[in-house]
Amino acid sequence: MGSYIPATDEQRGKMLETVGLASTEELFAGIPSQVRLQGKLQIPEGMPEMEAIRKMGDYAEENRIFRHIFRGAGAYDHYIPSIVKEVVSKEEFITAYTPYQAEISQGILQSIFEYQTMICELTGMDAANASVYDGASAAAESIFMCRDRKRTRVLVSETTNPQVLEVINTYCHGRQVVAETVPAKKGSTDLEALEDMLDETVACFYVQQPNYYGILENGEACAKLVHDKGGKLIMGCNPIALAIVKTPGECGADIAVGEGQPLGMPLSFGGPYLGFMAAARDMMRKLPGRIVGETVDTEGKRGFVLTLQAREQHIRREKAGSNICSNEALCALTASVYLSAMGPGGLKQAAVLSTSKAHYLQAELEKAGLHPVYEAEFFHEFVTDAPQGAKTLLKVLERHGYLGGLPLPDGNLLWCTTEKNTKAEMDELVRLIREVEADETDF
Length: 443
Known about the structure:
- The protein has helices at 9-18, 24-27, 49-60, 82-88, 91-94, 106-123, 135-146, 162-174, 191-197, 219-228, 248-251, 312-315, 329-367, 390-399, 423-437; strands at residues 68-69, 127-128, 153-157, 179-182, 184-185, 188-189, 202-209, 232-237, 255-259, 275-279, 290-296, 302-309, 381-384, 402-403, 406-407, 413-416.
- By secondary structure, it is of the alpha/beta class.
- The protein has three domains: 9-46, no CATH class; 68-76 and 343-437, Aspartate Aminotransferase, domain 1, CATH 3.90.1150; 82-339, Aspartate Aminotransferase, domain 2 (3-Layer(aba) Sandwich).
- The strands form five sheets. The chain has a seven-stranded mixed beta sheet, sandwiched between helices.
């Protein structure tokens, strides 16, 4: 199929001569030899297009698609109304790019403005931004909104999603900061331990609501403890749960962040997803990314402007307040269309069905021999033990098309339900587990 590099050898030679180099090797001399490729890439020869398509089809058949999903842990299989894809697939949206000439891009600005407004309504906060890659990035970015010269310590609950915690630690490592872990007690943040760790050097405390184990944390108590010591509270939220639980604003949080994937985005093998960030008024100017505002033009007509954008993120990287410089507008639009299609009533119904089905499944699993690990109120995820071993149990379920709970390091299982899970498939799941527990299944 030929080379994908359009320049000829003669043209490349002229470019090297222009910059004062004799060869391509000189161009890459600054890269240590031990990390440079020696020789040719070990890749197969090219093949005709028809054969290549057939080969890719063979690879695709190796994927395992589960119809019955009982796993969450940060990415959730919620129902997505058909209108969501119909709207966001329109050419005007799907080909749009970052609005560098912002005020000319009124349509894009309005879509971002509407998204920000919905996030504020959902979280109970005063201002929201756009352009955050995912929930983990949003959590990490929010931490550095809180630090200053006097307050440098960062506290994170042990009940945080491990992947989110890993991203937070990565961000902190780059700035020579240690994210201290507040221990858990019976699946929830240990408030006594939190109180002991708080002092005038603590900038913020991050807690997930619901937490990684699905348990609802005491957000108001966390806010009081942190604020009494002059720190800021960051809450990582499940946006579906916000339809029925107290919002971060009601709990007294200073910043609300979270993963927007449940708002109309399919699992898609892990992305692209959407991070959302919202803050109280006094934290608004520290929000990274962009904020779109509403105004009127000289004729009094409604218009939209790029109110805040940290330009050093594009042109003065060494002084940047964050590393956000891309545009997640299409994913943000997806969330907006989903929220519009569902409405307050639909979102609440999805939340109620998700949690009620989780409570039903937990009760049935207990009857089948899988007992709850934590005795605490939860949303739509919960942890059980696995007497016969998580690996054996999951293997049997997978053979029947069921993706069971996520195996945790301690051997327990983290289960999840959404409004999509039916009573019939939950009962069938329990029946299969009973067979495993009774050693009746042919492994």
